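Page 47, continued from p. 46.
Same chain as before, 217 aa.
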Amino acid sequence: MTKWSDSAWEASLPIVNEIKQLPFISELADGSLPADVFRFYISQDRLYIDNYTRVLAHIASRLPEMPDVATFLGFALDGIAVEKALHDQYDPDLNATKSAACEFYTSYQRARSEEDVAIEAASILPCFWVYLEVGKYLLSVAKLEGNPYRAWIETYSDPAFDISNAKAIDVCDRLAAAATQPVRDAMTKAFIDATRLEMLFWQSAYHKGVADPGLLI
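Result:
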């Protein structure tokens, strides 16, 4: 029987492949991304992570199995630590306000808290999986020597991130297996929507906040 995660990933793969071709990603790979663009991205990412960690903690509070509660609380703590290290290195603008794309993405995630916990968990999964996939892709094509974004690339291609991603997938698959078909369908939609929002986030960052969320969802 096909796992829910396999079918959700397959459905979102065209978007993931499009993400890999974004100018933001290709310029990260060769180190040519303008510093002000990356700083805009990191500043928005700091604001996103504030919401992301709270969503992870909220999911943890709703999960039925205590080991899964501990796993998602661990994700929240790990996310804070890793992102803080990167943000300290790349000097985000602490006075930045959310771009339209960041507001759209975080609002979308918060809205899923009103639905089945399986749907809420599915909506956060691309933040693990897409970043890992992009990190691995970048590691395979990037010029790391002298690249100012080397630390970012290596963080999201690190084997430890792979382990966290596998754990998040496993929780979602078990939630999907216990869910009704309508909930599984909604999980897939949330996963695809969030993957599109990952793309929007990078598109918006490349243009320093200029992007139209309505083009994607």
